[in-house]
Specification:
Layout lengths: L1 H14 L5 E19 H5 L3 E4 L2 E14 L2 E5 L2 E5 L2 E5 L5 E24 L3 E23 L2 E3 L14 E3 L2 E4 L2 E8 L6 E14 L4 E12 L6 H8 L11 E17 L4 H8 L22
Antiparallel strand pairs: 1-3, 1-15, 2-6, 3-4, 4-7, 5-7, 6-7, 7-8, 8-12, 8-13, 9-11, 10-11, 13-14, 14-15
Amino acid sequence: MFKICVSLFLVFISSSVWAQQLSMSLGVYTGLTSSYTIDDGISRDPRYKANYKVKFAPVGLNFGMDYEGFGFVFTPGLIDVGQNFYVVNSSGGQNGERTINLKYLNVPVAFKLHLIKLSFLKISGVVSLSAAYLMNGKELVDHTDTKLIFPETVYPILPPDYIVEYDGVAVPNVHNFSIGQKSDFQSIQFFAAAGFRSDWDISNHWRICFDFRVNYGLNEPRTETYLSALNANQTLYDIPGKRRDTFAQLSFGISRYIEFEKSEKERKKKLKGSKGYTPRYPYPKPRTSKPKG
């Protein structure tokens, strides 16, 4: 899938060589993200229940190029990825939270297909590929004194104050217990995304945009070293399972844009067939007959 997307993107890039350029824009944007972590281990673990939160995407740059019918947009920026989960006790009550927080410098390049085009508005379908560099990462657990259902495979590594009972494990209060830190996550991630974008020209030089995309992580975000420990049941609050990070991002931006005139060839085509202009002489017309005598 990744190779197909790259091939299509290169085709679109090559087409821009002959396409007629209309405008270029440069600006900034901010927005919000909402993450959904697809984790087979967490979904099977009775200690956790999904919790959905919105996170702030602080700032990014927006560079766009629009042609007849399509365009490109380059939007590097900071994003926070990772879902939160409630910690659920053996009776089904909520006693804490498991948080996943991965901060990336995300660098997406997107292709826009203009679906609606007016003099002041363009609404486009968007597909993009991005490379994301991990700036910081951590996965933590907090819970009060309670009783949790641990898998029996981790009983040998339970701390001394974790007491196994007939209906679960009595656990003490835990604050910022580290499941994973930055070194446990891959430094590079790739995301594929699709969505919609609207560009509004509010004046002759300023443009605002609204961009909504759903992003899917193409790689397992955790390192092979962490996965080896996970599969060997050496992680107290985690059980084996594949993981992918997905997130929806809603962005708002403002840009300065420049319009470019159409090529001379296209301008002449437009004028072809129009009634020509016959200049008027500011002096008497040239004589066309012989003088008498």
